[in-house]
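Hello again,

I reread your note about wanting to compare the complex against the isolated chains. To keep things tidy I'm splitting this into two emails, and this first one only covers the full assembly. Below are the input lines as submitted, including protein chains and any nucleic acid or small-molecule components. They are followed by the predicted structure of everything together. The single-chain runs will come separately.
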Amino acid sequence: MEIRIDKNVFYAGVQKVQGIVEPKGAMPILAHLLITAEKDGINIKATDLEMGIQGFYPANVIKEGSVSLNARKLFDILRELPDQEIHLVQEENHWMTLKSGRSKFRLPGLSADEFPKFPEYSEDALMQFSGLHLKEMIRKTQFATSPDETRQALNALLLEKNNGVATIVGTDGHRLSLIHRPLLKSQDDASDPTSFLLPKKTLMEILKLVEEDDAEFSFSEKGNHLAFIHGREVVVSRKIEGKFPNYKQVVPQDNKLQVVINKEELLHALKRVAILADEKSKMVRFEISEDSLVLVSDATDQGAAREELTIAYQGEEISIGLNARYVLDILSVVDSEEVTLNLKDQNHSCLITVEKDKDYLGIVMPMRL
Amino acid sequence: MDAFFVSVEETLDPALKGKPVIVGGDPDGRGVVAAASYEARKYGIHSAMPLARARRLCPKAIFLRGSHRRYSEFSERVFAVLDRYSPLVEPVSVDEAYLDHTGCELPHGPAPEAARRIRDAIKSAVGLNASIGIGSNKLIAKVASTCSKPNGMLWILPGRERAFLAPLSVDRIPGVGPKGGAELKRMGVKTVGDLARLPRELLEEAFGKWGTALYWKSRGVSDSEILPPGEAKSISHETTFAEDLADPRLVESALGYLCEKAASRLRETGKVARCVTLKLRFSDFKTVTRSHTLPEGTADDYDIYQTAVRLLRKLFVGRMRVRLVGVALSHLTPPGPEQSDLFATTPRENWDCLYRGIDSLRDKYGFRAILRARSSLRGR
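Full-complex prediction:
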């Protein structure tokens, strides 16, 4: 194998797989990436056996072939090299020589045969997302997933399609975040399964892949694997088994008390009051009365804090305890000037909506005092 | 209190008086003597002796199962009397306490006079005999009270502490058990006086910190303070099976019962627990404990049982036989704000209401008035 390739193209390709290689795992080969030189470019693959990432990058291929190299070492070298063409030549016993200007490196490779089989995926798109929407949907829901590894379904995001619209939901059982966005294209066949559980790690890798807002991403399914495909870049992941809770049932329909608040004001006031909230519960009391919202955190070991905001509100008085962390997570992903807290009473969930975007909502369950 | 459990039984059934009575349970079982009447003690029967052996020593003894409910009720009445005589009472057990008489001379007279009044008051209010030791510190008061039993009173004058202790056997000193006592006997120490003659360095070299403690105790010196009753740090329940169990289902149901008991006591304190500990003793007496810390505190039988049973299933595998199972709740805190659950099918209030109902039923009709179906009565 012998290639000449632009340093920045090569560097970007090697960088994209860094997230899933395992530098210190039980299987040394998983610390490697696989480079395959074909007619007009190279294919870079990596896998952790649960998921796989591959991309194709144009290169001047002098001699076809493939080899596996330590992903981290290659990445570190490329990062420090100046912007010059890179010349990669395979020597005996899978050794590779990398030359750039007056620099020269020799890397011990492993035979491509030792590299694990890349998971199989389908090119047949069930859904097609714009880069803009895919990125937004993941960003606005992934914070709500559960960190508890034993609750597999809550560890993942739920992806559904319905009439050309995709829905992504994340929840940890205490709060929930939901977003609908139109698909570019959708294969609507009633016999298809329409919901999928996306592993958290896969989502983080997809976010890295989305560079341009107008890029197109296809989503496909084959056997036990799901795939996101963008041109010649692919993220494949094993499906998560498990039953996602019935989220539609917990979206409140009759939370009639509506409190409209300036988002920035609430965000900063809540951040300040939360500093002195109980370390574990992070509870802040929202005391809402005519034209006033008072945020209170008291009776904790940390001290006490109180902050009043002026709001436009004429409804009945209500006081509700909420985990400040959960509310802040939602406020930080909302892109509008105002948010609406929709409440029923102190025992029912708080629904957070945005006037400008009816297709996003957040739900936070209260704390019982 | 003198032979407390037995004395309580005697007040309730005067026909038992003057007979060898043993509280502890079924003499055919594997339990131990919890209390023996002075009559029974004449046969060499003492607390913690296996019941079967007690019966061999005294076949005509009367064996009673006993009722902790009854004993705590009497104990509360005794403590109510004590509280009238001193603002500082340290309970040691259901039938033992330290009173600080400092500053109480004016209302209740000098210590011996106050002690006499306390004994009379307990006799007339509760109908039980109490023995009282008076001393310049807790150590002396404790030893004096033991020496004054039954139904007596002993006052050690200040300055006479060392002389009082000297002729006593070393194992009369609190903190010297069978093991320590044997160790000391091997060194030629039989009485407290023998102990007091040993140089401090020698004791410290042989026993470390405990040696220092012995040095002072043998001189009747103690600076241990009288402490008001503290808050419980943990609540635990355990049971030894009548025969070792190999069937996990039986162990689990016994564990269910213990969890219910512990949770019920926890709810009485108004607190929640964050840590659940399971204790298992196998037929070879190997004892293991495992703990799990919950993300949020709980006082629900169900949560506690689920946690305990998960720990049990990890430990109790293969061909093992279990002799004892127990559960302990710790990290007790007042309930904080509680995060409600999005997908809970039953609202939290309903559970609270259910447990309130269960607790009030039990208050009125006893603990076993209502039990979960899985909580078997086996092994108790």
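For quick reference: The radius of gyration of chain B is 24 Å.

B.
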